[in-house]
Design goal:
The protein is about 45% helix and about 0% strand. The protein is mainly α. It is elongated, with a radius of gyration of 23 Å. It starts with a helix and ends in a 43-residue tail after the last helix.
């Protein structure tokens, strides 16, 4: 019976102190964005290899025009040329 009791206690506490609503909202947005960023790093980063048998080195399959950084301020990835050997 702890689940419904805690939910009811939480809602009563928020009703008594309405100044907590923005705090809870900002904390929720911060936690949500942190989780989404970690998922982005885990799924789209070339440094992470989930399948070692079929793709042991995923960073070798990137072309020079692939943008893998989250924010590139001064680099234009479309104009880059390949300057590394094929493996």
């Amino acid at each position: 019976m702890k689940g419904p009791f805690l939910g009811g206690m939480f809602s009563r506490h928020v009703k008594r102190h309405p100044g907590l609503i923005p705090l809870i909202g900002f904390i929720s947005v911060g936690l949500g964005s942190a989780v989404l960023y970690l998922l982005r790093l885990a799924l789209y980063s070339p440094d992470v290899s989930w399948d070692r048998k079929n793709n042991p080195e995923p960073w070798n399959k990137l072309s020079p025009t692939d943008q893998y950084k989250f924010l590139a301020v001064s680099t234009d990835y479309k104009s880059l040329k390949k300057d590394r050997p094929n493996f």
